[in-house]
Amino acid sequence: MPKVLILHGPNLNRLGKREPEIYGTETLERLDARLRTKGEELGLKVETFQSNHEGDLIDRIHGAEGEYDVLILNAGAFTHYSYALRDAIASVEVPVIEVHMSNVHNREPFRGVSVIAPVTRGQISGFGVVSYELALTAAASLGQQVQ
């Protein structure tokens, strides 16, 4: 069974409270449970991790090699300026799918720039929590390829 690690970046622990008109009302805990269930339906073992700290996310990316088949990353605001996260992704052989709940391309101009996109397999954005489910569907396909 392919293993997928979902990494939630800064402020995603505030889901359900933070700007519900953009991010919805589902909490991170409920989202994680939903993603584990969806993963099971797709034949995936899903684990999740959230941190507001760049170094914690980098450590998890580094540690994913040999442990996970696919990473799904919502880097939050780090998406737009963290060359350290970009370099961490580039340094591992694990495919990474970039995900965003909002459509980052129709918001503030700075959000349309992703410094991590060039080193990910693809980007899914704009579908709320369903963005993660779409990423899991893509991960199932990638996971089967690497197994």
UniProtKB/TrEMBL annotation:
Enzyme Commission number(s): 4.2.1.10
Pathway(s) per entry: Metabolic intermediate biosynthesis; chorismate biosynthesis; chorismate from D-erythrose 4-phosphate and phosphoenolpyruvate: step 3/7
Binding site for substrate: N74, H80, D87, M101, S102, R111
GO molecular function term, any single one: 3-dehydroquinate dehydratase activity
Pfam families on file: DHquinase_II
GO biological process: amino acid biosynthetic process; aromatic amino acid family biosynthetic process; chorismate biosynthetic process; quinate catabolic process
Active site: Y23, H100
Name of this chain's protein: 3-dehydroquinate dehydratase
Biological source species: Melghirimyces profundicolus
Encoding gene, per UniProt annotation: aroQ
